[in-house]
Amino acid sequence: MKELQVPLNQTQKIRLQTALQKLQDLSSKVDHSIVAVADTISVNHDDGFLKGHGTTELDGEVVATVCGVVERVNKLVYVRALKPRYQAERDGYWLGVIADGAVIYVTWTRIVPERWKVEINFSQDAVLMLSSMNMPDGIQAEVRDTFQHDGTLHLQARSRKYGKLEKGQLLTVSPYLVKRSKQHFHHLEEFGIDLILGSNGYIWIGEHVEARDNQENPSNQQNGTSNKRSVNLAVPEKTYTALEKRQQICRIANAIRVLSSLGFNMTKEIIMVIVNMSITLNVEIHEMLGAEFYVRVAEKEVERRSSLKMGRG
Amino acid sequence: MVGLSTGEKHFIKGGIDQDLRSDGRRRLTYRPISVETGVIPQANGSARLRMGETDVIATVKAEIGKPSHLHPNRGKVSISVDCSAIASPVFEGRGGEELSTELSVALQRCLLGGKSGAGAGIDLLSLNVMEGKICWDLYIEGLVINADGNLLDALGALSNTGIPKVNVAAEFSAEEQPEVDISDEDFLRFDTSSVPVVITLTKVGKHYIVDATLEEESHMSSAISVSINSRGQICGLTKRGGAGVDPSVVLDIISVAKHVSEHFIMKLDSEISAAEADEAGS
Amino acid sequence: MDRRIPLRKEIEYLSPEGLRLDGRLPSELRQISAQIGAVPNADGSAVFEMGNTKVIAAVYGPRKVQNWGQQINDQALVRCEYSVANFSTGDRVRRPKGDRRSTEISLVIRQTMEACIMTHQMPRTQIDIYVQVLQADGGTRSACINAATLALAAAGIPMKDLVTSCGAGYLNGTPLLDLNYVEDSAGGPDVILGILPTLNRVTLLQADSKLTMDAFESVMQLVTEGCMAVADYIRSVLREHTKQLELRRGV
């Protein structure tokens, strides 16, 4: 939850308060599972347990090392941290998606003809060595081996389903707001836009790109020839996104910005609800970041969650 | 700090070209502005301004001083800006010094005028208490809390906010200042209508935009900051950035800036009065 | 916050009723308040106020080590910079960055925080803690440490325990908790304590001026209680913040 950046007037403040209060009433009680740093987590010592992320042992007791929500899966006890958005320097030559659904920045330098040193800004800035990758067109790479001992990851390119990410914008939100799922890539057909909800909180909204797998010999994917990789890296296409498409990209981006500053979970469906609401209300794109729309989104979320609850109950 | 990928850079440029920026703004639209006054109680006047994610604090302190020999009938104003490391790790140590100095000097130029201070945006004559003996010294200090572009305009707007709030309590005992009897609490009043705002137009590609974000500023080839008061008078100009500008464009920019400033001043005034009402209410 | 204080002998720091200049009891903390998330650019940030003292802490990291030579292979590099705004005190003084006082406080904060961060879980990374004083009215050191703890926790950096800090002094024969500027400048001893409240360890202890053994013991007792009270408050702020995030997120 970022500090409120929009200036609200008195009525808007009260409306927002009411909406947030309602959200609180709607949620199931979470109090007992919230822990702060150094809080003791109760475990059943007789049954045996496994300590997961965000926990440590102190005098035979399990203690939280981060703030978050205690989760128990069978014998595993861990703390799900509500990590803020990762503010790594956004820096890199190209953007790409890796297999576990994270959007990454990639910069590479050629060391020797067959080897490239690839640096990505992902999590704690692991340095990645690529043994083979379809470069420069596709940054689609997959984490094959994780070498824990030296912290480097080995990436291996496999398919080029997404290609590199161009013609669009990247937003960063707190990763906990993006639900991890197999489906992080969405093609919004009605707009012709690709939406990638990266599991690391990097969200890409860009023009839809057709998968171009068929243009290349699949057998090339594992060991593309080196001259192919050195296709001119520097020249971007000089055509701009069409205005209409750009409007849609910006509208979706602003919907995400509002959701992020309110700290609401985001899925494709929720984002589209907000986008459609802005269109129905005839809100200009930049006004979506203003006070009135901000409050409206909060109210809409109350509506959505209560109808969900009704449906369930 | 911002090193976006080529695709993103291209997208931002294209947006400016098509008059639809990444957050949906047009070239001459500002981000939402909010003002909070009286944030630093030990200062005579203070305000915090947020413009999108740019967040700055400015304070004004007033002290009794002695006017210089050259200008016995004028007060003195000093302006300094500090970029706090909390805003960005690049400001750590001496890292923020260059930017701090650039901003301080640009603000000085925009608000204080030349050496004599005759044509300054802030009327130095109004700071005179007793010619040749006593005057007010104003210290305007800015602190950058979070940087997301357009710092100069934000700071300029703040100096505008802080000054009208200057309220010097009459705490100087007769002993210290035998020559004057400062009893009136509201002794120090300024003609705020003439305190200028700063409007920066940043050139990206062929076009000029206002209120550039950090991402947009990373594309800047040049920028012109114009300081304009509510009467539409230009109080100072600063061109930043390396690239050259066509002379005819300069006049163009100034007239655009003047146009923009009218809206900006109006918006700012309403935010300030809202903030003051808020402060008085709480 | 006027710094022109009359001579020390003229002041009674405790009224006959046993109240201090600002109306507090000897063992009473000033009003404390904390707020998480004031700096959107940072990975974690917090504002901490103790009475009129107000500081902002921002944490950047864990991130790639910026200066390759400083990289540590089996743990994270923790860095800290403390700075004071020119307008933070009553009288206006130009404070150059990196004077001896700030360097010393930066060092103190770094060492204190390093003791609780689980640095071995984040090898070859760097964590930067920046603390900015906006208002100084005594107890800035303690306020900075408390703010830094909150900012680190908000950034999701794993810690063994929280660190909380508080100061105390001894004036007019009475131990006084959490001195403000006027009391601090009275010339009496000033004891600053930082503790790991759950692990029950002292991580920071600084004191100046003469003090008898007995008096020190009572001051130490008081300041420990103060740190515990701050710890309770910080914990409740963190829990509430986490709860709000979870509630808002929905799902």
TrEMBL record, chain A:
Coiled coil: none
Occurrences of domain K Homology (ranges): 168-209
GO CC term, one of those recorded: nuclear exosome (RNase complex)
A Pfam family the protein falls into: S1_RRP4
Protein origin, superkingdom: Eukaryota
Compartmental location: Nucleus
GO biological process: CUT catabolic process; exonucleolytic trimming to generate mature 3'-end of 5.8S rRNA from tricistronic rRNA transcript (SSU-rRNA, 5.8S rRNA, LSU-rRNA); nuclear polyadenylation-dependent rRNA catabolic process; poly(A)-dependent snoRNA 3'-end processing; TRAMP-dependent tRNA surveillance pathway; U4 snRNA 3'-end processing
Gene Ontology molecular functions: RNA binding
Family indicated by similarity: Belongs to the RRP4 family.
Protein name in UniProt: Ribosomal RNA-processing protein 4
Originating species: Stephania japonica
Taxonomic lineage: Eukaryota, Viridiplantae, Streptophyta, Embryophyta, Tracheophyta
UniProtKB/TrEMBL annotation, chain B:
Entry-linked PANTHER family: EXOSOME COMPLEX COMPONENT RRP42, EXOSOME COMPLEX EXONUCLEASE RIBOSOMAL RNA PROCESSING PROTEIN
Family as reported in the entry's similarity comment: Belongs to the RNase PH family.
Keywords: Cytoplasm, Exosome
Any one Gene Ontology cellular component term annotated for this protein: nucleolus
This protein's name: Ribosomal RNA-processing protein 42
Subcellular location: Cytoplasm; Nucleus, Nucleolus
GO biological process: exonucleolytic trimming to generate mature 3'-end of 5.8S rRNA from tricistronic rRNA transcript (SSU-rRNA, 5.8S rRNA, LSU-rRNA); nuclear mRNA surveillance; nuclear polyadenylation-dependent rRNA catabolic process; rRNA catabolic process; TRAMP-dependent tRNA surveillance pathway; U1 snRNA 3'-end processing; U4 snRNA 3'-end processing; U5 snRNA 3'-end processing
Alphabetized SUPFAM superfamilies for the sequence: Ribonuclease PH domain 2-like (SSF55666), Ribosomal protein S5 domain 2-like (SSF54211)
Domain Exoribonuclease phosphorolytic: 30-155, 195-258
Gene3D superfamilies: GHMP Kinase, N-terminal domain (3.30.230.70)
GO terms for MF: mRNA 3'-UTR AU-rich region binding
From TrEMBL, chain C:
Keyword tags: Cytoplasm, Exosome
Residues annotated as domain Exoribonuclease phosphorolytic: 28-158, 161-222
Source organism of the structure: Stephania japonica
Subcellular location: Cytoplasm; Nucleus, Nucleolus
Signal sequence coordinates: none
Lineage top rank: taxon: Eukaryota
PANTHER family referenced in this protein's UniProt entry, alphabetically: EXOSOME COMPLEX COMPONENT, EXOSOME COMPLEX COMPONENT RRP41
GO biological process, one term: U4 snRNA 3'-end processing
UniProt protein name: Uncharacterized protein
GO terms of molecular function: RNA binding
GO cellular component, one term: cytoplasmic exosome (RNase complex)
Family: Belongs to the RNase PH family.
